[in-house]
Amino acid sequence: LGTGAYGEVWEVLAENGFRRALKLLPAGDAVHRQELHTLDLFRELRHPFLIGIIEHFVAPSGELCVVMELADGSLADRLKGERKAGRRGLP
């Protein structure tokens, strides 16, 4: 789906048949310790405007893997659509 400063995001099909987003962050123990703590906190959050974190783990290759709900599109694309419609930002 994309590559950014924090790694790659792929669309995957989970064993239960749901489409999910899989974020792969490069290996790095110091970064992983901080990210794992943060992910533990975020995993408990529930809000209709937040993408839910399903699972996170460190792969044998050393990459940090984060399985999340899959959004219908990007925030950047949504903002472009709102501006094209004459609105200044997101509602």
Radius of gyration from CA coordinates: 15 Å
Describe the biggest sheet? 5 strands, antiparallel
- Spatial strand sequence of the major β-sheet: 1-2-3-5-4
Low-confidence stretches: none
Helix content: 25-40%
Order of helices and strands: EEEHEEH
Rounded mean pLDDT score: 86
Category from helices, strands and their pairing: alpha+beta
Number of strands: 5
Shape estimate = globular
Head-to-tail CA distance between termini: 25 Å
**Number of helices, counting only DSSP H or I runs of 4 residues or more:** 2
Task: Name the beta content range.
Answer: 25-35%
Structure in words:
It is built from two helices and five strands; from the N terminus they run βββαββα. The mean pLDDT is 86. The protein is globular, with a radius of gyration of 15 Å. Strands 1-2-3-5-4 form a five-stranded antiparallel β-sheet, covered by helices on one side. It has 91 residues and is an alpha+beta fold. The longest helix has 14 residues, at 29-42. Strand 4 (53-58) and strand 5 (64-69) form a beta hairpin.
TL;DR?
The chain has helices spanning 29-42, 75-84, and strands at residues 2-4, 7-13, 19-25, 53-58, 64-69. With 91 residues, it is α+β, with helices and mostly antiparallel strands.
List keywords for this structure.
about 90 residues, 5-stranded antiparallel β-sheet
